[in-house]
User: What shape does this take?
Amino acid sequence: LLYDYTSKQILVDQNGDARMEPASLTKLMTAYLAFDALKYGTLSLKQKLNVPAAALRSSSEESRMLLKAGQSVTVDDLLHGMIVDSGNDAAITLAVNIAGSEAGFVDMMNQEAKRMGMNNTHFANPVGLPDAEHYTSASDLAVLASAILNDYPQYYPLFSQRSYTFNNIVQGNRNRLLWMDPYVDGIKTGHTESAGFCLVGSALRDNRRLISVLFGADTDRLRFSESQSLLNFGFKS
Assistant: This one.
């Protein structure tokens, strides 16, 4: 799907309402709710949160901020770890501290999805682990990306950060569009064996912003080339 954020028009729609597995694109909703918590004062950027043991159990080798159970970490670090590093451990730590439990946070995610009108979305966890009851659509993710841009522009620069260093370990953002296109400034990648390679991209060119959503590419390279083609088509046509 290709969405023109500036004019609020869908430019390309290929099965945009089909239910798809989002993988780590799920963390866009986790981030939105964390931004909500900052807005309403239940979290602050300098506040330190304890890392629950559950945060480590949900972290695969490729999706970790490399936290340790019981460690005390600032909300600011956790947001960077979740968004730049795509850390499951960071996402779970934020979720448990915001809602008291993962299940409670998932309820918040689904309530927020309903409020936004994400009618083809249901969440089962805060990170994107495969689950039969965990799905979304390209059109719904365009709604969610737009909500982040519209409601929390002050935090949007997190999505364009190319790397983040925590505990002297540098991890790079997996969104290679940030290097390929000078106009691209976000937003999030996702990948599991079952979901394939996924990407929500966004670019701002001549005061016009486009949002691309792509699911299920066979390779890492293909998700970026296809997303780049979508964005180029939108700006040129």
In short: Residues 220-236 form the longest helix (17 residues). The radius of gyration is 16 Å. DSSP finds eight helices and nine strands in the chain.
